[in-house]
């Protein structure tokens, strides 16, 4: 049966935009359905003050178009959200993408019709589109987590979630503000909110590690040199586990003499950013090495934060890098400001939200507004919000009631012709998202092209291949310390969510190799049918 489109793509972030571009290039018809009014995904929704990417701008960018690479000018080492959103819009215009994107269209349900071998995609207002393929490009951190704190609906002032920030911005001047959460979003926004607000109170459940960004404008000569060597840089990046061109250490922290070890940590601290975890090769493999790195950062907190009690509360107790490391501009020093108060709610959760503020630790805190920097239902949240139904009408949430199970983080048994860009079980959030997105989009495009050439209509992973992949994802996760703490990587931030380490931690090069072997073996692990 003829369908409206070859493919429906859900989401117009970096994944959805590039997917559309590639499918068009191969002569497939595609329609992108996007809930927002514009492109950009994460960078469309996360407009909180201080939002920026913690991967350097020259690396966090598309590489599929040499002309785009050469024409676009990044202005700072770490690009701000507005600059990244401008880039996304530039890409949409440059490649004339908007004519195939339907905005303000939230997909609610998609059902596979086994008789016709097609997907019926329901998008709000009773619209149904049919397509042979559904490709999700909804992002990994796109379903905001609003904590279930009693009384939240009673608060009389505005409540802002960092993951769904007002487009016109928020002016905190003269306001008393309460921020709940101390993850990356909070750590980026707190210094700026504090600089504006009359008073800021931060409610901290888990103290976090953060490394200074040492952000700044990009030097013209540096940009010129990067532009002259993009292909080499991108090639090197693909050989690195995180898909970022960065020197990979060979020395163990614990086997390095203390003085030299401290010098190395200091060198990485001074350079700034996520590369701190690459000071040595075993920070996420060896408890003692991890402790050495953690102790270095803890000493920095004591050095920066003047009040010893506040410094102690801000000092993380878990291992470094287990939760996603944060990158900041002036976070700890913000707690030296007279208009900033830190409330430690580690042992006593917030009791309730009142009409006027927060009741915690037996005390009432009065606020004009509240900021929820409480993160996301990561990796599976957005996928499960859409009622995806595969063979036999089985919902994806039933398939995943013990945690996500995928083949390569791209496909799911029982869900033919469904692809997920950066789905659970792929490197995604443990890597530079842009190259990971491009690799997935290229894989999907080549797969659809190969199916067309072979006269194959339906592709679906086989149970054994999926089981083997799920078990491989789990066993590599067990090797690292990263799977050991209560992070969103394991779903621990969402009450009732199965505790499974969701991304693939084997590194981008191993993952790319695996995908290439699957293709070379004529789609090993998949059942292809006419
Ligand atoms: O969310 P988070 P985020 N009561 O889940 C706390 C990416 N990102 O939006 O740790 C009190 O890290 C929660 O406490 P706890 C990046 O990958 C990237 O900050 O669960 N507190 C935690 O402190 C990042 O890792 C950039 O104990 C509650 C906070 O809220 C990911 O997005 C920038 C609570 C949530 O922290 C998520 O970061 C920003 C409750 N009931 C984000 N519920 C870049 O630079 C939750 N919390 C690219």
Q: Would you kindly provide a written description of the structure presented here, covering whatever features stand out?
A:
The protein has 530 residues and is α/β, with parallel strands linked by helices. The chain has two domains: 5-143 and 377-529, FAD/NAD(P)-binding domain; 152-372, no CATH class. Helices cover 32% and strands 17% of the residues. It is built from 16 helices and 20 strands. Strands 1, 2, 3, 4, 5, 6, 17 and 18 form an eight-stranded mixed sheet that branches. A five-stranded parallel sheet has the order 7-16-8-9-12, with helices on one face. A three-stranded antiparallel sheet has the order 13-14-15, with no helix packed on it. Helix 5 links the parallel strand 8 and strand 9. The longest helix has 22 residues, at 433-454. 3-acetylpyridine adenine dinucleotide (N01) is lined by residues 52-54, 141, 147, 149, 162, 180-186, 188, 203, 205-206, 324, 345, 349-350, 373-376, 429, 488, 493.
